[in-house]
Design a protein that fits this description.
Number of strands of chain A: 5
Number of strands of chain B: 14
Number of helices of chain A: 10
Number of helices of chain B: 9
Largest interface: A-B, 29 and 33 residues
Number of domains of chain B: 2
Order of helices and strands of chain B: EEEEHEHEHHHEHEEEHEEEHEH
Structural class of chain A: mainly alpha
Largest sheet of chain B: 6 strands, mixed
CATH superfamily of the largest domain in chain B: P-loop containing nucleotide triphosphate hydrolases
Shape of chain A: globular
Oligomer: heterodimer
Strand order of the largest sheet of chain B: 6-7-8-4-9-10
Largest sheet of chain A: 3 strands, mixed
Strand order of the largest sheet of chain A: 2-4-5
Strand content of chain A: 5-15%
CATH architecture of the largest domain in chain B: 3-Layer(aba) Sandwich
Order of helices and strands of chain A: HHHHHEEEHHHHEEH
Number of domains of chain A: 1
Chain lengths: 292, 310
């Protein structure tokens, strides 16, 4: 009599793996979350105190996008620090396709990050409501012709109040997403991370030495492309709200002002570019750990 | 004069099915060859002991079976599955205990670790896991980061056994265990075999510790599989012969299968791979008197094979 071959061992489903990774990451980030929570509580107390004294007019914190981006970039370190991906330890032994497993864990981390961003946005909105503020920001806006060297007359400048629109609230999530993906790509793709510190060191060294007098110009061009070009990070983070052009008033006095209002089109274009770029880098990095 | 015969390389499976099969498996690290064309065949059911010195390539072989290391050549099958192409399916069938004791998540408790595994293995049997924890004196509330080497090894064993995999790949499983715990673990492995009819592939250089379990033996040395055979064949065909003869007697010329020869006064001792009657006749025909023929312990037999000339 022939016995039937044993049925193959079942594989875990997406929901089981995702739920478990959500739980593991949540616990792994507990210390960081407690520290951030304490800092946030202090900030809330100080803000409420200032609001109660009437000495504060809250606005949309464009500068905080940088802080959010930095946090999102370093978060993957905390997400992946236990996994030791390059030495193929516990994570690699589990019965899930490795690249898929990495994608699921990354998604689980993104859910925590998204939750934190949502919490911050909610907090900000509540501060706005308590203060009776539209969270708008006041900036000078230039109108009319600008001279080749940025010359303008003072009457071309007018103060405008710009209040954040729906897409500005969404941009916090996309900013966090882009930098989270970039950080994850770095975490997954680079084995010896400290060696990469040499890159900025060499960059700044070259900048200091400025050989042949071209490094300075190259650096300025690179930074301009990276930050304030149509596909630059400022457009991705805020639709161009942080880009202030340097202008020269009659008489030689320098000032800065918007040459146009932040726009959803600018933001969408740049954000799409950065999401595709960071997603591609993430996929390349994850592919370093694929099965065969 | 002595001659070494080719060592045995064939294992006949009672059912013809192999749990693990490799053909010409090659792995190199730079200029070093970790595995140089391994043809391993571990039959389904029973325990295959992969013995070898440190650095012989045992761990590398196991890591290739789990698709943790990519081979440079040859083929690998685990229950007919290719670990490189069907890694998740292979890992679902295998309970693997790596050489390292370091837990992935030091903050986890033992109980939480079991939950973690339960999420990944639908076949997880929680009552069985709880029973194993009790048998191995593992407290569910103990933190992994505070476990001793032996306790960490026990936790790994529970994780590997609680889902009753068809194949256990154990890399130095008794490393770090005290004698009592070792006995307990070997008992659990025996129970697992009786319970599941599965296969265990144990890699170790501490042969005496797993002596009572092994059904088949494979001996690795310097990345080459010197021998693989059923245990009873090893005991039946690899024997120590003690003989003495007249002054100046050196034993039979061209005695086939000699692995080791040592002279003590007029007594000569041979460790020989061959049929006992044939070897004894050859010695007697050369003028010697065979005083004793004895099977080697598994430990001595493996050491003899490891020391055999190519």
């Amino acid at each position: 009599m022939q016995t039937a071959p044993p049925s193959p061992a079942p594989l875990p489903g997406f929901a089981a793996v995702f739920g478990e990774q959500l739980s593991v990451i949540g616990r792994s980030l507990r210390l960081e979350a407690m520290i951030l929570g304490a800092a946030f509580a202090l900030l809330t107390a100080l803000t409420l105190y200032e609001l109660s004294r009437g000495s504060m007019k809250p606005d949309f914190p464009l500068d905080a996008a940088f802080l959010l981006a930095t946090t999102a970039f370093v978060m993957p370190y905390a997400v992946w620090r236990d996994e030791k991906l390059f030495s193929h330890q516990h994570f690699a032994i589990l019965p899930v396709d490795r690249r898929r497993h990495i994608a699921i864990k990354t998604l689980a981390g993104a859910v925590w990050l998204g939750g934190a961003v949502a919490w911050i946005m909610l907090w900000l909105a509540m501060i706005g409501v308590i203060a009776g503020s539209d969270l708008g920001i006041d900036r000078y806006l230039v109108s009319g012709q600008i001279g080749p060297k940025g010359e303008i007359s003072p009457d071309q400048l007018r103060m405008v109040r710009w209040a954040p629109e729906t897409w500005n609230w969404i941009s916090a999530f996309t900013t966090a997403g882009v930098f989270y993906l970039l950080g994850t790509a770095f975490e997954l793709g680079v084995r010896y991370k400290l060696r990469w510190l040499a890159v900025p060191l060499v960059f700044f060294l070259l900048l200091a030495i400025n050989p042949l007098g071209v490094t300075q110009q190259l650096a300025e061009t690179t930074i301009e492309l990276l930050l304030v070009s149509p596909l630059g990070l400022d457009n991705a983070l805020s639709g161009g709200a942080e880009t202030l052009d340097r202008l020269v008033l009659v008489g030689g006095k320098e000032t800065t002002a918007w040459t146009g209002l932040p726009s959803m089109e600018n933001w969408l274009r740049a954000t799409t570019f950065w999401l595709v770029l960071s997603g591609g880098l993430f996929w390349l990095a994850a592919s370093r750990h694929k099965e065969a | 004069m002595t001659h070494a015969a080719p060592l045995p390389h064939s294992i006949a499976s009672p059912t013809g099915d192999l749990a693990v099969a490799t053909e010409g498996l090659v792995k190199r690290y730079g200029k070093d060859t970790a595995l140089g064309g391994i043809n391993l065949a571990a039959p389904e059911g029973g325990v295959y002991l992969l013995a070898g010195e440190n650095g012989a390539g045992k761990s590398t072989l196991l890591r290739i079976l789990m698709n943790l290391v990519r081979p440079d050549g040859g083929s690998t099958r685990v229950f007919g599955l290719d670990p490189q192409r069907q890694g998740p399916q292979v890992r679902a069938e295998v309970g693997y205990i790596p050489e390292t004791h370091q837990p992935a998540y030091r903050w986890m408790t033992v109980g939480r670790l079991l939950d973690h595994h339960a999420a990944y293995y639908p076949a997880w049997d929680q009552p069985h896991a709880d029973r194993l924890c009790r048998q191995l004196s593992l407290r569910p509330d103990a933190k992994l980061g505070s476990l001793s080497k032996g306790q960490a090894r026990r936790a790994q064993l529970v994780c590997a056994l609680a889902r009753r995999p068809r194949l256990l790949l154990l890399d130095e499983p008794t490393d770090g265990l005290d004698p009592v715990a070792r006995d307990e673990v070997l008992g659990l492995l025996s129970d697992h075999l009786a319970d599941t009819g599965g296969t265990i592939l144990i890699s170790t250089h501490l042969i005496y510790e797993v002596d009572r379990l092994a059904d088949h033996i494979g001996v690795l040395r310097g990345g080459a599989l010197l021998a693989q055979l059923p245990r009873e064949d090893l005991h039946r065909r690899l024997k120590l012969y003690r003989a003495d003869g007249p002054e100046g007697w050196v034993g039979p010329a061209n005695l086939q299968g000699v692995i080791k020869r040592a002279a003590l006064g007029r007594e000569i001792r041979w460790t020989v791979w061959g049929e006992e009657a044939e070897v004894a006749t050859r010695i007697a025909d050369s003028g010697g008197v065979v005083r004793d023929v004895a099977s080697l312990t598994l430990d001595d037999a493996v050491v003899a094979l490891m020391r055999a000339k190519d």
